[in-house]
Amino acid sequence: MNIPPTYAVILAGGSGRRFWPLSRDTRPKQLLQLFGGKTLLEHALNRLEGLVPRENILILTNREQEEAVRAILGEAIPAENILSEPAKRDTAPAIALGIGWVAARDASAVMMVLPADQLIQDEAAFRRCLGGAVAVAHRTQALVTIGISPTWACPSYGYIERGARTQVTGAEEAVVYEVRRFREKPNPDLAEDFLRQGNFSWNAGMFIWSVSAVVAELSRHRPELSKFVAEVHHSTDLKATIEAQFTSLPQISIDYALMERASRVLNVEASFDWDDVGSWISVGKYLPKDANGNAANQELVQIDSHENIVFSTAGQNISLLGVTDLIVVQTADALLVANRHSADAIKKIVDLLPEALH
Predict the structure, then answer these.
(1) pTM value?
(2) Number of Cβ within a 10 Å radius of residue 251
(3) Within a domain: residue 210?
(4) Which of 96, 115, 173, 280 is the most exposed place for a label (fewest CB within 10 A)?
């Protein structure tokens, strides 16, 4: 099967508030060394090895974080393969920018859109799955999304409702389903219902399509985004075009703008592990644990303390005495002590802090 050139657009923007005080506005979670001495962005880049040539990997970030992104990646990819959005406009405008950027290089390409802030450990399985998804996108001209088999009734994720399984010639190893619809984050009872029904996947925010297919769908459903894609595609001054037009685009997600409207969407089931690393609770799962369930990135002194999460970059001793279910995060300039059951609310505390700590 003669598949055209493949590109990947890695979305590496976002805020840095759930992992405060380690994360800051200029250093969100994808730029933190949480796992294996590398940032999540570096992991996202490395797992594309052998699947997408480095010169075909494009990084889209924002102005606050561009300097840090360039410093982390160094010469790993060409400098011109990193762009920043001039304003926050949600995923649809960002992805439209990525589509136009790829089209300017090769309008016949198949492209992936991948978040930078997820943890995937089985990189070989990831490459096999995404390679199959590329083949599906090429052979069907459908918009393809990757679905994660849910392990529990999580109310914090969007869901994909699957229809009938389908076979795609040339991509027989891929597990492919028609998509009935996308479902927004459910309440806990509805999430339990999704799990019982058995035909729902978590929406991982990974998309694969041919440039021609996605441009055609945008033309039908979001002409203002299609026009922007065309402007970027044919621009003789890419940065000037983005500067002039990006801020006028609607603030809307790609699911609302396109995926829920497209004529045909296919779901390829993930064959790899996946974690969106949404909070310090997620990080705690991967840290070394002692006999009392305390997870830490350093040696702890503890007495009668259980199920705590400790992460420090300050190089100081941390001792625990008679405490349970805490999150303790220490940096050179800040200390967080939180109940682990309030992990999702950590971002709220940042609004109360001095600007220097944002």
Answers:
(1) 0.94
(2) 11
(3) yes
(4) 173
